[in-house]
Amino acid sequence: MLNRIHIITSCFLLFIIISDNFSQIQPIRYREGEWIQTWYLCGPFPVEPVTDTAPDINHLTGFETDFLQAQGGESNPQIEAGRVVKYKDTEFKWFQYTTSDSVIDMDAAITKRSFVVAYGYCEIESPGSRVCLLSLGTNDGGRLWLNGEQIWDLPQGRRLMVDDDLIPVCLRKGCNSLLIKVEERGNIWGFALRFIAIEPYLSLQRLRLFQIIPAKDGSIKLRFMYSQAVIDQIFKRMTLSVFNSDEPEQLVWQGEWTKTKEMPLDFGIQTYGNYLLHLNMELVDGRKWDGKLPFVSGKRITYTLFDQGKTEYSIVLGRNASESEKWAANELQYWLKKAGGAEFPIRSDREKFHGKEILLGINEHSNTLLDPEFKSPENSDESFVYKNIGPNILIWGGKQRGTMYGVLTFLERELGCRWYTPSVSMIPQRKGFTFEHFYHSDAPKIRVRNDFYYEAFEPIWAARNKINGAMNNREQPGGVECYWSVHTFYRFMPPSEFFDEHPEYYSIIEGKRVHERAQLCLTNPDVLKIITERLRQTMRENPEYLIYSVSQNDWANPCQCDNCQAIAQREESEAGPLIWFVNSVAEQVETDFPKKFVGTLAYTYTRKPCKTIKPRHNVVIRLCSIECCFAHDFKNCPENKSFLQDLREWAQISPHLYIWDYVVNFSHYIMPYPNFLVLQPNLQTLRENKAIGIMEQAAYQSRGGEFAELRAYVLAKLLWNPECNIEEVIDDFMIGYYGRSGQYVRMYFDLLHQRIASDTHIHLGLAPDDKIFSDQFIRNADSIFDQAEVVAENEEFRRRVDVARLPLMYLKCKRSPLQSKYDGTYKLFKTILERENITHLAESGQPHLEAFHKDVELAR
């Protein structure tokens, strides 16, 4: 079956029969699914030629001429083979055309000239009345009549695709006439037509049975797209339900379809907005069918938020507004002025409501506009809504962070505000801003979001980008959900305090109690008592934290005593004694701290889940991905198979997971590290497995890590919504942060990530001599950065490009220290480090930095 017309027609042309004598049309017997291969054709009739491409939304000029007017007209054609049609002193004769193919090739049958039209006619003999689909494909546009009724019209050019249009029709018993009029806009033309069963295609989207027709006054009609006969043959009844698309649970109106081609939907909507029509149908054969149609309704009114540096709006806060809501009001005021130059005064709801307000949070003024049954969200609820009610804009959510996040999202989505780094923000400037309809609601997909980059620790940037998690408490608008410490065994029970008198508190290793690079004896009752009391004291002294860690030291050597090993062997994991111990601690502190959590690690030797012991409801397992390959995502790499299995098993037995994930090369913070391709799928996998919190550990001691600004920004977006369009986020950053140079920085970014293959595996210690860093890659990357520097708008953008290029310079210094010293790479590298105050090239800090400089400077 052909999908398009081929210029070479000899493959499928059987024969053309042209008769000089009039003869009756021979009806074709209806056969479901078979192409109609015999037609009576007439043409080509001239239409007005065009010099350029014909317009896409109108038929060719002259198409509307009824060339068959003398033979009954297009709606009642009287066709006979051999009969002549006269038009402007030219005669056109009807002739029979038969092909063995699906396509009627009009180039072969009529003409290869452009800007003409022609007719095709046939009669279908149906043994009975039936509803079916007329399947049609054309090149180019055209019009179609069945039994004199126009059932299809396409005023545009297109290539021929079989079954492109599926048109529900009713064939009557006996003879049915089909007339098609096809136009030629250039190149090739033709059509293909058949009848097929309607049942497999009964879906609103595929057949486009209904259409919403809006009027200027805001009223709407429901239009059935095909004939009344189809309605009577297919539909028994249909219930119509209109919902507000912005608030999908809100039923606006309900009624029964009148089974007419057009039905006014009179549900009294005055507010302009987005709505959804649900169609719940019962077909004549008893089957049920549901469809949905989105539409816009209500009187369209345009409101002006600001114009030419002036505004009639004010920002209104409730008298009991939270600190974050007050901060958000100042943010909104500041960025609106940056965007349009207008000063938006901040007022209290104690003042009189004046009708053009941006209402933050739930206050007296917003209560006058909202439904009387509206319930305020919980203070800790981070979800939010912003919408307009008439000219007024309402933004609300939980008082702690929800309203604040709503304001920040409003600025991002509606005005294009961006906070790329702590020092680089932007908002497009404009003379005016108008709106007709606002509605947006959102909620975080991950409860605690910890972006562990040095850049992301800046509290204002973190708040603006919806980062709410931290290892240590910090003053940040809206506050943070803190995870108190990690590796805390010796913090609670330092060997200097206990070991000399109580060595039994520490690990037995090879038959001897030791404390150097060891752990605690978790089955010792005194250890449980001491840890519990000291944890209580910590929770009392540091009430601002959500989770408090009771966790192993950052090395191995768990206790090998009989009691500890009995649990480990029974649970088939060293996590056994740890979870048993942490459960005991959590049970004892719960009475005093019912809303707090006790966290512990599933890390290195404790990563494997327990066989039977389950963490308590107030215990958070902090699973670490430190052993993984970060060239490929968790689900698609054999090296990650065991971690994925552990993740899924912990998710099955744990009430809460808090993931400690890694996104940086700790051995070389500043070296190229192509792991962006796994950030999104890995976060999605973690979210799927009950992660209430995720920490993305990165270059946390200094700025200057490889693509640190970009990665911090991207991670913030992903932690809020792992389904966001990551390519759009990256492209937006590239252009916004690097300006004209961004196209080349993106080119380098893609070049780097193209180095990853199915057999490429990178870990947290990727080395400079790894095979992915070929000499050719370095040469190509250098060339790209040279172009990026040339097009930079100014010195500020050029400096940002310098920082993006630092990883490439570092790689050259590590691979060829002598050459980098003499070609100027090392000197430039040092200059940029000092200028940008970059202090850490690796997690180890100063020792690594000193060794790096020594290796290059002493190279001979």
What does this structure look like?
By secondary structure, this protein is of the alpha/beta class. It is 28% helix and 26% strand. The protein has 22 helices and 41 strands. The strands form eleven sheets. Strands 1, 2, 3, 6, 8, 10, 11 and 13 form an eight-stranded mixed beta sheet that branches. A six-stranded mixed beta sheet has the order 24-23-25-27-26-31. Strands 33-34-37-38-39 form a five-stranded parallel beta sheet, with helices on one face.
Q: What is the residue-averaged pLDDT?
A: 93
Number of helices: 22
Q: Which CATH C-level class of the largest domain is it?
A: Alpha Beta
CATH-assigned fold name of the largest domain: TIM Barrel
Number of strands: 41
| Beta-strand content | 25-35%
